[in-house]
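Quick one, T. Sequence first:
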Amino acid sequence: MRVSREKRPLVSVLLPAYNAETTIARAIDSIRSQSFSEWELILADDGSTDRTAEIASTAARLDARIKVHRFEQRGLVPTLNDAIELARGSTLARMDADDESAPDRLGLQVAYLEKHRQTGMVASQVRFGGDRASAPGYAEYVDWTNTVLSAEEISMNRFIESPIAHPSVMFRRETLVRYGGYRDTDWPEDYELWLRWLDAGVRIEKLPEPLVTWNDPPDRLSRRHPRYRTEAFYACKCHYLAKWISKTVEPDRPIILWGAGRITRKRFHTLEESGVTLSGYIDINPRKIGLKIGGLPVHDIAAIPEDRGWFIVAGVGNRGARESIRRELEQRGYREGADYVLAA
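Structure tokens:
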């Protein structure tokens, strides 16, 4: 039986797709199964060469809330922006072609935004849909995102990693209009958007429930497109970290990078290119301590001043290092966000 909905929807679900014939039906069905009914699904096909558009069109014939639009292949961001232009809802939700939403996802997120008018975007926890044995790093990242929930936690931890799973978000159209939408750059389009909105003061929160299954197929775009490589993430984060430092740290306060290794220095080179002047490094390697690298001194942990005179950017991302650095600095009276920031 064909379901018909003529009224303007409250929520437009944006679903760009490319060659997703093996997963698209499940993604669509998860939206059709929502307990909240005032939605439209904008399925933007990015020039698929398989049966993606055919499968989506079959679903559209059964449910008038599903709108299928085919485009020449141009990539995710242009297709996503086309979907936004076609959307009629005052609230926009994201969805990927290989993920699935829980039946109460849209309803819970709509209710949250209606109750919390100061919130510009709400995400949710996600279930990891991959193989933890073969992708332990990705699974660990998902577990970490599920611990970063409140607006304050999201803001504080945004320079560690992207704290939000893209297909879990719902945001107000007015937020997008005021602060701008997705940009087609060399950086991850979602992480850049979150950092830009947070820099502008947008309040982003996360529901403490896993409302999306975030699958991890081997051909996932984030695994193969250059804008998602590690260097691109660091370039993006350093650009916005520099903007944050310029607004947060006193101009004459020494800025010290924790981590003097070659990889860390290379990753944070963009920070200096963005206008942040480093005064030195902290490292635990006794062979580096006391040396100068690029004219800057390498300090031992013991050299950290007790009067919180330094502002410290923690750039070491090794397993366990982040929490170890946080404990060390907190024991010395340093306050996260005021005297130091975790950035790896």
